[in-house]
Design a protein that fits this description.
alpha/beta; Rossmann fold; 6-stranded mixed beta sheet; 4-stranded antiparallel beta sheet; 9 helices; 14 strands; 30% helix; globular; disordered N terminus; VWFA-rel_acidobac-type; vWFA_dom_sf; VWA domain-containing protein
């Protein structure tokens, strides 16, 4: 028969004994596994381990030979010699529309296989070397107009800079795409002093290293020879032969040169420009400046570019001559070829 009164003393003592043993068991467990006491707290600050990154697959060398271990990456581009070519007729008009088969290309005596051919209007890095010496006093306004017109032939992807020179060269306008910026700098150009033409070419060539476009060209506007530079004629000629920069010049030469430097001016500019594949335009009047500058700008946009891989693998740093010949279509008059005369082989 069930009763609802207090448990007997024996029952109470038995329950206390069970509770005591259970407490002892829990204490022994906590002492043996102390980490369990912190388990709940650690769950409040979960540290997610990043998933292991997959091992990258090796490049597929079958699709790109330049990635093979026994070849140097980018070597293909280094070995490709590019030759910009301008074609004109007897009236100095540009000739366009020729095809790859109309050209023969030689390095030394060996005919080269033309691997690259284009006549697209590629972006250009342009620089103007602008004479502001004292002898330019009566020509300076027309010369400034010529610079602006030359840059107006530029495309949106082109960039250009301006170097002025008299007693010493000065970077008048750094690389920009704004004709207005250059025009604003020209306002303060005042003709005075002597002529440091060679030093100015050196500064322009050095600045061209900052150009972002693979095609590069300089335009020199001057009225005489050099009578102030620290660099010599030989040093500058070597410099322009080494660099892949086309150089054009507009020479405003007086009919009766007063000094030896002025008499040698046309020859100096011709030797510097022709080796790069450019040209020197001699004019008699400042009024011709803007038209000639525009013509040069258009010419730079209508060149053929021939590319080949040299057969001579020797890295001897020597000068290698280049010659471009034409096989013109029937019915055309005599045509004239302007291209760079050579390049220096690599040394490593």
């Amino acid at each position: 028969m069930l009763t609802s009164g207090p448990l007997p003393l024996v029952a109470r003592e038995g329950r206390a004994l069970v509770r005591g043993r259970l407490l002892v068991f829990i204490l022994l467990v906590l002492i043996a596994c102390p980490g369990l006491i912190w388990a709940q707290g650690e769950e409040q600050n979960v540290h997610v381990k990043p998933l292991p990154q997959p091992t990258p697959k090796p490049p597929d060398v079958s699709s790109d030979p330049s990635l093979k271990t026994h070849t140097r990456p980018m070597k293909v581009d280094v070995d490709l010699v590019l030759v910009p070519v301008t074609i004109t007729d007897d009236w100095n008009r540009l000739v366009t529309g020729l095809e790859r088969d109309n050209f023969l290309l030689y390095e030394g005596k060996d005919q080269m296989d033309i691997r690259h051919f284009s006549n697209e209007d590629a972006p250009i890095s342009l620089g103007v070397i602008f004479d502001v010496s004292g002898s330019m006093s009566n020509k300076i306004d027309k010369a400034k107009e010529a610079v602006v017109e030359f840059f107006k032939t530029a495309n949106p992807q082109d960039e250009f800079f301006l170097v002025s020179f008299s007693e010493r060269p000065e970077l008048l306008a750094d690389f920009t795409r704004s004709v207005e910026d250059v025009q604003g700098r020209l306002v303060y150009a005042v003709p005075k002093g002597r002529t440091s033409l060679l030093d100015a070419i050196y500064l322009g060539m050095n600045k061209m290293r900052d150009g972002h476009n693979s095609k590069k060209a300089l335009l020199i506007i001057s009225d005489g020879g050099d009578n102030r530079s620290r660099y010599t004629e030989g040093e500058i000629k070597s410099l322009v032969k080494e660099a892949d920069v086309q150089i054009y010049a507009i020479g405003i030469f007086d009919a009766f040169a007063a000094t030896q430097e002025e008499r040698l001016g046309p020859e100096l500019l011709s030797e510097i420009t022709e080796v790069t594949g450019g040209r020197t335009f001699s004019i008699d009047s400042p009024s011709e400046l803007t038209d000639v500058a525009t013509k040069i700008g258009i010419e730079l946009r209508n060149q053929y570019v021939l590319g080949y891989r040299p057969k001579n693998p020797t890295k001897d740093g020597k000068w290698r001559k280049i010659k471009v010949k034409l096989l013109p279509p029937k019915g055309l008059p005599q045509l004239h070829v302007y291209s760079k005369m050579g390049y220096y082989a690599p040394t490593e």
